[in-house]
Amino acid sequence: MTEPLRTESLNVLVVEDEPRLESVLERALTKQGHRVTCVRRGDEVVRQASTGRFDMIVLDVMLPGLSGIEVCRRLRAAGVVSGIVMLTARGSVDDRVAGLRAGADDYLVKPFALKELHARLDAVRWRGRDRTARPALEVGPLKLRPELHACERAGRIIELRPKEYAILEYLMRHVGTVVTRVELLDAAWDGEVEHRSNAIDAQILRLRTKMEKPFDQPLIETLRGVGFRMRVPTSS
User: Fold this and answer.
1) Rounded distance, CA 117 to CA 144, Å?
2) Strand partners of residue 151
3) Model confidence at 213, in pLDDT bands (50, 70, 90)?
4) Which residues pair with 157 in a beta bridge?
5) What pTM does this model have?
6) Is the dihedral of CA 117, 121, 122, 123 positive or negative?
C-alpha cells in the first residue's frame, strides 16, 4: 500500500470526544511527525485555538459544550486562520454546506481512511498558505477577506462558499475585463467540471443574490456568448 506523502511538521489540534477515535487520530498524526494536542469539548477548542499556535484543526461536528459548527464560526469571527477539517457522521449535503459556510476548509464523513485525512490536511495546508499570504483584495468599496473566506461591502460581511469565493476573487483580479466561463471553471474547479456544465451560471446567480440584491446595484455583467465582467462598484 502506498504511504501518504509526508508534509512538514505541523501543530495540530484534534477535537474529538470519542476516546477511541481520538487515540487513533493522535497516533496517526504523531507518526507523520506532527505535534498533536487533543481536546474533547467545543468551549475548550475556542480557548486553545484562539492562541493562534495551531496550523491545523481536526474538528468533530458533534461535541459537548459547543457544536463543531459553532466552534468553527466563532474561530473565524475571531480571525483564526488555522486550517479546519471537519469530521462528521452526517453525510447530507445540508450538513456539509453548514460546516463549509461556518468557515471549514474541508470535511470528512465518518468512517474515513487515515490516508485520506493526511491528504486533505496537506491540501488544506497548501491552500491556506497561499490564502493567508495574500492581503485583502479591494475593488471600490468591495473587499475580499481571505482570513474570513468572505467579502465585505458597506461594512457588511457576506459569507461565501468556496466556489463563490474563487469565482469572485478571479473576477475582482480582472475587474473591467471580460472573462470566459472556461476561465472561471479553471479558477474554481481546477478543470474538474466539464465545460458544457451550467455550474458557473449557478454560482454567478448565488453571488448576485448575496452581493447585488441587498444593495440594489449590479456588479457582475453578463455578456451573452462571451462571458462575465466585474464592474467597479460605487460607494454603496
Assistant:
1) 29
2) 144, 158
3) confident
4) 152
5) 0.55
6) positive
